Amino acid sequence: MNLVAGLDFSILPQQLANGLLLGAIYALIALGYTMVYGVLRLINFAHGEVFMLGSYAALFTSWALGFTPEALKNGAEKPSSWMVLALMLVVSMVVCGLIGVVIERLAYRPMRNQPRIASLITAIGVSLFLQYAGGLFLPQSPPPAISEQVNPYRKDSDNVRLTLKDAPAALKAQAKLLDAEAGKAEAAYRASEQQDPPGHTTAATEDLRQKYQTLERSAQKVEGEVNGQSVKLNIPFGQLIMLITTIVLMLILRHIVMYTRTGRAMRAVSHDFDSASLMGIDVNNVVTVTFLIGSALAGAGAMMYATFLRTNLTPFLGVTPGVKAFVAAVLGGIGNIPGAALGGILMGVVETLVIWLGFSGYKDAVAFVVLIAVLLFRPGGLLGSSKVEKV
Amino acid sequence: MKFWGVRLLSFVLAFGFVYGLDVVTQTAFPNLYRLAVLAGLYVTLAVSLNLINGITGQFSIGHAAFYMIGAYAAGFVSQHMYASQPLGPVLWLVVMMAVGAVFAAIAGIVVGLPSLRLRGDYLAIVTLGFGEIMRIVVQNVDPLGGAYGLNVKPFGEPPKILWLVWLLAVLCIAVCRNLLKTSHGLPFIAVREDEVASAAMGVKTSSVKVTAFVIGSAFAGAAGALLAHSETFISPDTFKMDVSFIILTMVVLGGTGSITGSIMAAVALFAIPEWLRTMQVMIPGSSIVAGILAVGIMVSGFRWVQNNYHESVSKRIGAYLACVVGAAVAAVVLSFVLAFIPQLAQQRLDVAMLRMVIFSMVLIILMLLRPQGVFAHHEFSWDWLSKVLRARKGVTA
After folding, report:
1. Is B379 contained in some domain?
2. Which of A25, A157, B40, B86 has its CA 20 to 30 A from that of B182?
3. Which of these three, A186, A212, A229, is where a domain ends?
4. Does the CA dihedral A299-A300-A303-A309 come out positive or negative?
5. Residues 81-120 (A) with a CB less than 8 A from some CB of B
């Protein structure tokens, strides 16, 4: 009971919305994990690092477009437009796609006939290599961040506001009344203060001051009550763009996978690698395309993560989102594309719920708890088939 | 008679080795003692992970968790109880090793249980996740010092710590070696080779897997207890995921399943970064990029020779040498060319920062060229040595 008593339910919808937005990013990364796993049965540990490199690609693009810390020093303003955001998104996706293809070609393809554990160790090695080689060469101290001026829709007035449940009208009226009264009392107090001789406060002024402060306090109390009883949503417009972009990208992915030749080949390879190659499908080509698409999606996620969620970039940035996205992929059923999207959103929501419950110190551990629970009780994931893997 | 003679000889050799190490490290330059202690801990960790990964074939990549549990359990108990008990420091350290081992073994059971249902990469992920969960929990528990860490200083300098560390390493090696050499170890190997078949032959695969986890994690826990006392300060950052990967690299480099390999790789992979750290040379960024690219060229050359060049041994050795020479030339040329890129040439990097880059490259290159590890599944033995020597003699005679 005590646990529930400390919770603020009026901010729950806002937290859920935040979780949904964060989950959209996780879903984008999870798609890369799940596609690669579906085709190669390989956990691509380096995927989180591709994400990290994507955020740096977005950072460098923003610098190339003139949004450098030097140019924006001392509060200098620089106009931006949606074209800047689109360019950053495209550059980040292209760079990540290429990096993914190169990693596959150099590190994973030679391992294809080895036992799966060998590929897994290679993937860990690539992941560590990108982190620490990135640590040598990428700017990191102080951790750079993409300037918020890149986002043309950052003003508070652009935010999308929704009132889900309003406070009772009587309470609102009372708040308004008290506010007006407090305003009047303040005016009276200020006027009296003006009339006093400088450096001396008369008893009448002191009296007025105390009256004003009491009124102000009760006005604030009622105001707090109004806020507590009404349920509002406040979503920055940038994050709304993020959500829409994610949905569009997922629809494009769905179209590619379900309605194109390449997509059909991908599904065939993921169904049975050897038979697909016997049926004349160029398996290498399919794997390359898979890495290209998966990594490009991670790049899109990275650009939006770094721009709209205003993260400081470090070479180790990719580890945590990478792990959570992997958990999301497993949660949805690894190898299952709609599952990855669902799992990602669930992971985002779970994470914000844990913060809401007051365990923010444990927010990174929850991903693993979810993972272990899923693997133990439903190894196939939510949308996957629940047959136990026999190797 | 011979049996006991050999046992006695092993004991004498083990103690003699540690005594020699003690004398040498204390008389040589001061930091060497600490390095020898840490190297011994890494040997224990690598050999104990090898029991889980290499001998039983359960792919665990969260060994740092057991190390951490041992360190924190022993550190906490030691800090609170040393003053109110009669034991001297050395005996107390032995008791603390036991405490660390017991706590880590309990954690080993907890982690071992999922291994009954999961295998391969999924088990790897679960062990990794367990390690991270443990680390985050410790970070959030205030009596353990939270993120700031825990001071473990019940007495002054821990006495005879090198003895304890290396005797623990020897004990761990002996346990694993004897397990492999006796009938007790056969089920472990059977589970590694084919779990379904061994279950069909009556091997209790569940208990074997959990036992491997318990023994392996107990040794890691004992090592952690000694680490806590020798370093006198531990924090969750001491046991990050990287540590697990370093131990894994040691096992994989040495050859999964080979105890000799694990020991050699642990010492080598511990010594190389420490040696780099003492160099304190600043290298321009362009040279480092050139070096990495040259290594890539060398590896692809090696792979080409491995796969496409089926000539006599001497010709193949010549081809490998050509690859090395070519890579060296490429490194020199590339470092000159890349020096024209001002961003790279002006960046000066400390060699010590290359530590983890080297680890990761070793891991990748090894998987590309020799996935079974340097020693593969072979072990060092006197029989093997005498066979090699005899074969030499036979050739010369």
Report:
1. no
2. B40
3. A229
4. negative
5. 106-107, 110-111, 114-120
**pTM listed for this prediction:** 0.85
In this structure, is residue A382 part of a structural domain?
Answer: no
Write out pLDDT tens, residues B357-397: 888 888 899 888 888 888 877 787 777 778 877 776 655 54
* DSSP H or E stretch at residue A233: strand A231-235
Looking at the complex, does the CB of residue B353 fall below 8 Å from at least one CB of chain A?
Answer: yes
Query: For residue B103, what is the domain's CATH number?
Result: 1.10.3470
Q: Are residues A225 and A306 in the same domain?
A: no
For residue B242, what is the nearest residue in chain A, using CA coordinates?
A: A128
Region B205-233: what's the mean pLDDT?
93
Q: What is the ipTM of this complex?
A: 0.86
Inter-chain touch A128–B356, beta carbons under 8 Å:
yes
Chain B residues inside the 8 Å CB shell of A121? 248, 252, 363, 367
Look up the domain containing A195 and give its range.
Answer: 167-229
Q: Do residues A30 and A135 share a domain?
A: yes
A126-144 pLDDT, tens digit per residue, is 999 999 998 888 887 788 8
The answer to whether A185 and A137 are in contact (CB under 8 A) is: no
Which chain B residue's Cα is nearest to A366? Answer: B133
Please tell me whether residues B359 and B225 are part of one structural domain: no
**What are the angstrom distances between the C-alpha of B207 and each of B164, B175, B188?**
30, 18, 10
Chain B nearest C-alpha distance from A32 (Å): 17
In a domain, A306, yes or no: yes
Asked if residue A72 belongs to a domain, the reply is yes
Q: Would you call B121 and A117 a contact, using CB atoms and an 8 Å cutoff? A: yes
Distance of alpha carbon B32 from its chain centroid, rounded?
Answer: 19
Q: Is residue B395 part of a domain?
A: no
Pick the closest to residue A20 from A293, A382, A385, A345 (CA basis): A345
**pLDDT greater than 70 at residue A43:** yes
User: So what's the pLDDT on residue A255?
Assistant: 93
What confidence tens digit (pLDDT) does each residue in A315-335 have? Answer: 888 888 998 898 899 888 888
Cβ–Cβ below 8 Å for B139 and A361: yes
Q: Distance, in angstroms, between B95 CA and closest chain A CA?
A: 32
Q: Does B288 touch chain A (CB under 8 A)?
A: yes
Average pLDDT across chain A, whole number: 85
Nearest CA to B244 out of B75, B46, B35 is that of B46
Contact B295, B327 (CB under 8 A): yes
* Amino acid at site A357: L
pLDDT at B4: 87
| A153 in a structural domain | yes
